[in-house]
Amino acid sequence: AAQTVGEWFWDVLREMTQRDRKLFLAFVTGSDRMPTVASTQFSMKLAMLGSEHNRFPIAHTCFNQLGLWMYRSKDELRQKLMMAMTESEGFGLK
After folding, report:
1. Distance separating alpha carbons of residues 60 and 85, to the nearest angstrom
2. pLDDT of 17 higher than 70
3. Which of 39, 67, 70, 72 has a CA between 20 and 30 Å from the CA of residue 78?
4. CA gap 5, 52 in Å, rounded
5. Rounded distance between C-alpha atoms, residue 85 and residue 16, angstroms
6. Cα–Cα nearest to 56, from 23, 88, 80, 20
């Protein structure tokens, strides 16, 4: 199941528009831009959190880590991730 959620995540990320990818980057890292110096060394960690599929993904921006729950479908993952990306406030920095 964790492998399936991970595969769905990469599918969803590939299917995003450029604008949505910037929102995703801001959600996970706190910035909508890749650092120029570290762009070749950028890494992001995915963590599978558990079976509570009704919860939203969790981002730990200090660690470039995204926590995903065991969603039941790719559409559910997409919906929860997009909602988290667009409705979260983060630090409020622009």
Report:
1. 13
2. yes
3. 39
4. 13
5. 12
6. 80
Candidates 77, 76, 70, 59; CA nearest to 23 is: 59
The pTM of this model reads 0.83
What positions carry a catalytic annotation? 62
Tokens read off for 56:
């939203």
| pLDDT tens digits, one per residue of 44-67 | 899 999 999 999 999 998 888 999
Instruction: Name all contacts of 4-8 with Cβ < 8 Å and 24+ positions apart.
Output: 5/48, 5/68, 5/69, 5/70, 5/71, 5/77, 6/46, 6/48, 6/68, 8/71, 8/73, 8/74, 8/77
